[in-house]
Amino acid sequence: MEHISLSYLYLALGLCLATSAFFSAAETAMMAVNRYKIASKARQGHLAAARTQKLLNQTDKLLSVILIGNTLINTASATLSTLIASKLFAGNDFALGTATLLVAFAILIFSEATPKVLAANYAESFAYAASYPLLILLRIFYPAVWLVNLFVSALIKVLRLKKNQNNQHALSPEELRLLVLESGRYMEKKHHTILLNLFELASITVDDVMTPRHQIESIDLDAPTDEIRKQIFTCHHTRLPVYSSNPDNITGILHIRKILSLKEDEIDQARLSEMMRPPYFIPSSTPLFTQLQNFQENKRRMAVVVDEYGEMQGLVTLEDILEQVVGEFTTNAPAQGKALRQPDGSVLLDGASSLRELNRKLRLAFPVDGPKTLNGLILEHFEDIPDAGTCLVLAGQRIEIVQTQDRSIRVIRLYAQDT
C-alpha cells in the first residue's frame, strides 16, 4: 500500500469515522426509541415506522449486524491510522504512538460519544433514517449475523439464561400508571385525571366510598303509613333501603320511581313489600373495580356493605364508584359531609367525612390505609373520645374538635396551614 497517496488514506479514514458514527447512532436510537409510538405509527401506515418495528422485532439480529459493522469499521480505522502515521512519521515510534492516540480520541468523540448523544435526544428521527440501510446490511451480512447469533444463543444456554421470547415488552400496571402520569402534558387534564383514577380502582375498596350506615336514608315498614308516605315524597334519593324495626336488618331496596305512578292512598306497607327488590350484599373488602364488574353482571346499582360478621356497614352505589373515576356528578343529600369555609380561613367538617374525599377535594395528605373517616382517624390517634376544644396535629394539619356526640366526633375545624 506504499503507492496509495495520503489524500486517499485521509478520505478513507474520514469515511470510516462517519460510518462508525452511523452505527453508533443507529444502535442508540433503536434502543432508545419509544416502541409503542413506533407501533402506533406503523399501524397508521408509516413506512419508516414499519421498517423500524420490523428491526425491533428481531433485536438479536439488529444488534449483531450493528456490532459486526462497527467492529469492521473500527478495525479499518485503526489500520488506516497506522498507515498514515507510518507515512508521515516513519521510524519515529513516539509519533506513531501519538498518532494512534489521536485517532482513538477522534473515534471516541466523532464516532461514539457525539452521535450517541444526538441519537438519544432524537431517537425517533435517527431510527427512521437508519432503518432502511440497516435492513439492507442485515440481508448482506445475514450469514455472519446467523453465525454470531448461533454462538450467542449457545452461550446463553450454557449460562442458563432465558431469552425474551418474541421481544415482548409488556408494561406492568405500575409502569403503565407511571407512563400515564408522565404523559399528562400530551392530553387534556380531565382525560388525564380519569385515566389515573382508573388505576386506583383496583386498590380502593367499597368501604372507602360507601355511605356509612348512620347516614343512610331508609324506610321502616313498621312505621305509621302517613310517616312512610311523607318520607317517600321528601326523600333525596331514588333508591331507599327498607327494614323492619331494626335499621341494620335491610330486607329490600325500593325504587322510588315505581311508586310515582301510584296514588297517595295506594301507598302502604303491603304494596311497598311487593314492589321492593331483594337486597344485594357485598363484603366491605371488595375492590371497586371488582364491584363495578359485579354491578354490571348482576344488573344492580346499589349494594349493602357488610363486614366479616355479616353486620351492615353502609351502602355503596354505582354512582359512588363512577365518581371515583370522573368526579362528582350526583347531588348529595343536605348536610352530608359538606365543608363550610369560615372567615378566618378554617374549614368546618363533618366527622364522618371520608379521608379519601378530603384528600382529593382539599389536597390534604391524611393516611387512608387505616380508618376511612376523619372521626375514625382522630379516635385512633387518641385511643379515646376527646373532649370538645381539643386540638391536635395530624398529617401536618392543625385540627380542633368542635363537637362530640353519641360516642363520636360530629364537627371538626380544620385550620389553614399558614395559621
UniProtKB/TrEMBL annotation:
Q: Which SMART domains match?
A: CorC_HlyC
Q: What is its main location?
A: membrane
Q: Which Pfam families match?
A: CBS (PF00571), CNNM (PF01595), CorC_HlyC (PF03471)
Listed name of the protein: HlyC/CorC family transporter
Residue span(s) of domain CNNM transmembrane: 2-193
**InterPro entries, A to Z:** CBS_dom (IPR000644), CBS_dom_sf (IPR046342), CNNM (IPR002550), FAD-bd_PCMH-like_sf (IPR036318), FAD-bd_PCMH_sub2 (IPR016169), Ion_transp-like_CBS (IPR044751), Transptr-assoc_dom (IPR005170)
| Protein location | Cell membrane
Top-level taxon of the source organism: Bacteria
Signal peptide range: 1-25
Q: Start and end of every CBS domain? A: 210-269, 275-331
Task: Identify its membrane topology class.
Answer: Multi-pass membrane protein
Per the UniProt entry, what species is this protein from, by scientific name?
Answer: Iodobacter violaceini
Query: Per its UniProt record, what PROSITE patterns does this chain match?
Result: CBS, CNNM
Q: What is the lineage of its organism?
A: Bacteria, Pseudomonadati, Pseudomonadota, Betaproteobacteria, Neisseriales
Which keywords fit this entry according to its UniProt record? CBS domain, Cell membrane, Membrane, Repeat, Signal, Transmembrane, Transmembrane helix
State the similarity comment.
Belongs to the UPF0053 family.
The UniProt transmembrane annotation reads 62-85, 94-111, 131-156
